[in-house]
Amino acid sequence: MQSIIAFIVVFGSIVFFHELGHFIFAKRSGILVREFAIGFGPKILGITKGETLYTIRLLPLGGYVRMAGDDMDNIELQPGYRIGMQLNDKDEIEKIVLNQNKQLPDMLFLEVEKADLQKELWIEGYDEDEKLVRYDVARDAVINENGTETIIAPYDRQFNSKSLGKRAMTIFAGPLFNFILSCIIFIVIGLVQGIPTNEPVIADVVKGSPAQAAGIAKGDVVTAINGKAIDSWQELSEAIQNSPKKEMTLDVQRGEEKAQITLTPKEVVVNEQKMGQIGVQYSSPMEKNPLKAFSYGVEQTYTWTMKIFELLGMLVTGKFTLDALSGPVGIYKATEEVAKYGWTNVMNWAAILSINLGIMNLLPLPALDGGRLLFFGFEAIRGKPVDRQKEGMVHFVGIMLLMILMIVVTWNDIQRFFF
């Protein structure tokens, strides 16, 4: 149960933040957002607030923000349609009823001749007296079809009506919010757990080592090496490793006292490389500092971003195969393992996964956010958008290929973990 809860919290938070980025920037751009969904497939829970339906769906494999102007979004009233209408106090149509025989209060009927529900917002047709009439349509009018209500989307509220910059930012905001989430998680870890100070403090001394023979003690702080000041364990470690069988002098602070110790690192071979070693151990003290916690969050996000890019490079160059990739099953099993070591480790894992999702979505592949941004790049160069039907076909093919990849990766995960 703990593993299931951890997986739902981790994966759900990452997907939610990703879609929240799309949602916020779509709303800021004036785009009508029809649905904010977590998951795919059949709807489990749905709540309508304002003009947006918020849903949780059966398959927890992602989410989406459905914006006005998407394919199959707009309803067209063809000549000959018989519709019911309700008017507001300005005599504008506020509700259009399709395919419903039951008459609502104050409903008027019209046989449609012509209609524009996107730009000029009007409907023209023959009333019950067979007289040709024309009504304006309210910008927030609702279409009721078989009991389901949909708000109309004037063209200026559709995704494709917005400037290239607003469209690109709305798409880029999803991955951007994944990096922001990662940064926030690392900051919280820094505030709660503290930040490693990385000070050159000796945590312990190995018996029989050059350090013990020279008189180095637990708790000593190394302040200089061969007269050169240092302030981090990394500097101390690199200096020792680079000096096998070479005498060196360490300036040490021991309480209120200062000492100068001379020793010679012994030579060890690691991966066919000769390195120095003196036999000391490191355990970084933790410091709770809000300002340093903020910088820690940014630094960790950057560090893990670079590591994931390195792994992608290895995948492209063939150093990794598809067998090394994991899907939802692999993520669940990894989350199950991480959850054994406490919620701090789960938070760290969530931050890394969030970065990974952000990077994956920025790859210039069809159907991903990066693929859509690539088409926006073509639009910027050409000065006009790519034909929407051609772009839609490319994204459709991309979705099919991604589904195949997901099936292969999931099957590999099942074989790896259960057989």
Automatic annotation (TrEMBL):
Database matches in InterPro entries: PDZ, PDZ_6, PDZ_sf, Pept_M50_Zn, Peptidase_M50
Signal peptide range in chain numbering: none
SUPFAM superfamilies to which the protein is assigned, alphabetical: PDZ domain-like
Pfam families to which the protein is assigned, alphabetical: PDZ_6, Peptidase_M50
Matching PANTHER family: MEMBRANE METALLOPROTEASE ARASP2, CHLOROPLASTIC-RELATED (PTHR42837:SF2), REGULATOR OF SIGMA-E PROTEASE RSEP (PTHR42837)
EC numbers on record: 3.4.24.-
Membrane-spanning segments: 6-25, 171-192, 392-411
GO biological process terms, semicolon-separated: proteolysis
Domain of life of the source: Bacteria
Keyword Hydrolase: yes
Keyword Membrane in annotation: yes
CDD domains: cpPDZ_EcRseP-like, S2P-M50_PDZ_RseP-like
Cofactor: Zn(2+)
Any one of the GO CC terms: membrane
Gene Ontology MF annotations: metal ion binding; metalloendopeptidase activity
Membrane association type: Multi-pass membrane protein
Protein name, per record: Zinc metalloprotease
Subcellular location: Membrane
Keywords assigned: Hydrolase, Membrane, Metal-binding, Metalloprotease, Protease, Transmembrane, Transmembrane helix, Zinc
Main localization category: membrane
Domain PDZ per the UniProt entry, residue ranges: 201-267
Family: Belongs to the peptidase M50B family.
